[in-house]
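Session log. Operator J.P. requested a structure for one protein chain; no other inputs attached. Running the standard single-chain path with token output.
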Amino acid sequence: MIASLRGRVEQVAENAVVVEVGGVGLMVAVPAPLAARLQPGQPVALFTRLIVREDALALFGFESPDQRSFFELLLTVSGVGPKVALSLLSHFSLETLHQAVGANQPERLAGIPGVGRKTAEKIVFHLKDRVAARGEAGPSGWGESDTDILTALTALGYTLVEAQSALQSLPRDAPTDLESRLRLALQYFSHR
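Structure written below.
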């Protein structure tokens, strides 16, 4: 998995950029507001998610681990693929998405490309408990070390949903350092 990349912007399109990393130009799909801010020649650091399909590899880039985590959370909803998830992140801020899901307002999400009324209702239905459970510590509810734990667990072969369940099972008084939290998250799987 390619978790992040750092390089120089070569080209910019509406929802994608080409980033030169070590002499190789990587096409990275990004939310439209991010693409609009980037200029050729500018250095950039992106948090990424590689999507592997039977016929293609697609790299998606985000400006924060929280944005990447919400993208991955959207992918857990049946019928929501990477293009729809990216479209949502292109049209709404993370805060707006969290508010719409948390307040059970699918009508706020409907009407953008790829998201009709039924898809919006499905997104809100499947994510409202997860978003509400994470609502205290910021937009995604998790700090950067917790995002690193999610990345580590998914790299070990656990699904994103399993990794999130393990992270949510951590006690409130759990240590804050990455190594201890990862160890506790792994213990969740041994006690299932």
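Operator note: The chain has eight helices and five strands.
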